[in-house]
Each structure stands twice: as C-alpha cells, then as structure tokens.
Amino acid sequence: MERGDGELIFSPQVNNVISLEGPVNTVGAPQALLIDDSFLQSQRLTVTGAAAGSTVTFPTMSRGKWNFQWWAHWIFTGTTNTANQSGFNILDGLGNQAGLIQPEHITGRVIYLSGSMDLTFQRDGFQFQLAVPATVAGDFVAWGVMINARRVV
Description:
By secondary structure, the chain is mainly beta.
C-alpha cells in the first residue's frame, strides 16, 4: 500500500434482514379499484395488422412499499422499424412513465424476461402498463406479462 490508497474494511458484524410481504389476496385484481393488498395479475396485448397504438394497464396501486416479481414475453414479426418500441412501463398517475422493457420492432424478435424489484410509492396512483405503438399491415405484436405484486407496508 502506498500513501493515499483507499482501504476496504469488512465489518465482523452480520445483520439479518427479513422482508414480510403480504400473502396474495386476489388473482386478477379489479381494474377500477385502488389496490392496497398483494395480488397476482396477468395481462395480454396482441395487435395484428395495421392498427392505432394500444395499451393495457394493470390495477392501480396504493402508496407504500411493494415488492414485484414479473415474467414477460414479447414477439414481433412484420416490418422492421427501430423507431417503434413497445413498452412494459410503470406509470405514476400524473402522466409520467418509465420503461422497464422497451423492445424495438425488429422482425423475428422474441424476448422472454423475468425480474424483481422493490418500489416505495409516496402516493396512490402507480400502475404498470403494456403498450404497442401504431403498426402497419403485416405486423404482429404480442405481449404477455404476469406480475406478483406483494405489498410490504
């Protein structure tokens, strides 16, 4: 070691962490209600041929800490257009969104993904969304997503 080098120190203490999510209360939670309990939900969005943009949303979640596990598949065949992107998004209820998965429309593309994340919502109104932009004749786009949403607090 030389003067000014960083030093990494490992603490000899071990801290246990436990997370107690609520058990799944419902499968296929109602869209019109504000959901404040754990749920399991799957959604599909399929577009064939020329069509306007389409979206499908998941239930609206209440504020608090949530743990999410998700499984997604997406397929596209048709006219390649890398400017077009489908989306598995999260919406904040104020018109803002962030893309979790945003595949470009490249013919023959098939995606299978899964993941998990913890999010703490400061206010009510957050929800997940599947989105497909406008398509042209000969296009086929299909989303399938399942979410295990577990309310922690």
